[in-house]
Amino acid sequence: MDWKEHYTLDCTPMDDMHKEFIERVNALALADDASVLTAMKDLLHHFERHFAQENHWMNESDFPPLHCHVGEHERVRAGLQSIIRVVENGNPCLGKTIAREMESWFDHHAATMDTALARHMRHVGYSPHHSGQNS
């Protein structure tokens, strides 16, 4: 998965998290069967930090569609946790499938929900920063 120019939301902390997401997805895509579970757990840990950070920004900036965006985060996190359980039970190839699917999910999520959040924060004058939740 490559960084695409349309992923840039002119919100440096968010763009940085998205670049880290791409690194984690690429690590999963390149993982061999012996390391795919570790790569999936690293991606899950990234999601937990990433989503907590965005949720914090949404709360702090009074983002109107907060519940929709938070719900999307929860669905993706829960889905990855379920797939990790399948991989733990002996199906490592499913991890590679998830890595491929993440690109289309991210294309849509960044273009819609994250773009709306970045625009909202600019509109209300909220300056996002990395909170302790993302450290």
What does this structure look like?
- With 135 residues, this protein is mostly helical.
- It has a single domain (11-124), classed as Up-down Bundle (Four Helix Bundle (Hemerythrin (Met), subunit A)), CATH 1.20.120.
- Helix content is 73%, strand content 0%.
- It contains four helices and no strands.
- It has helices spanning 12-30, 36-60, 66-88, 93-124.
Helix proportion range: over 70%
Topology-level CATH name: Four Helix Bundle (Hemerythrin (Met), subunit A)
What is the fourth-level CATH superfamily?
A: Hemerythrin-like
Low-confidence stretches: none
Q: What is the typical, i.e. mean, pLDDT?
A: 92
Helix segment count? 4
Compressed to H and E, one letter per element, the order equals HHHH
Number of domains: 1
SSE arrangement:
Blueprint: H1 12-30, H2 36-60, H3 66-88, H4 93-124
Helix pairs in contact: 1-2, 1-4, 2-3, 2-4, 3-4
Question: Main attributes?
Answer:
135 residues, mainly alpha, Four Helix Bundle (Hemerythrin (Met), subunit A), 73% helix, elongated
Quick structural gist:
The chain is an all-alpha fold and 135 residues long. 73% of the residues lie in helices and 0% in strands. The protein has a single domain, classed as Hemerythrin-like (Four Helix Bundle (Hemerythrin (Met), subunit A)), CATH 1.20.120.
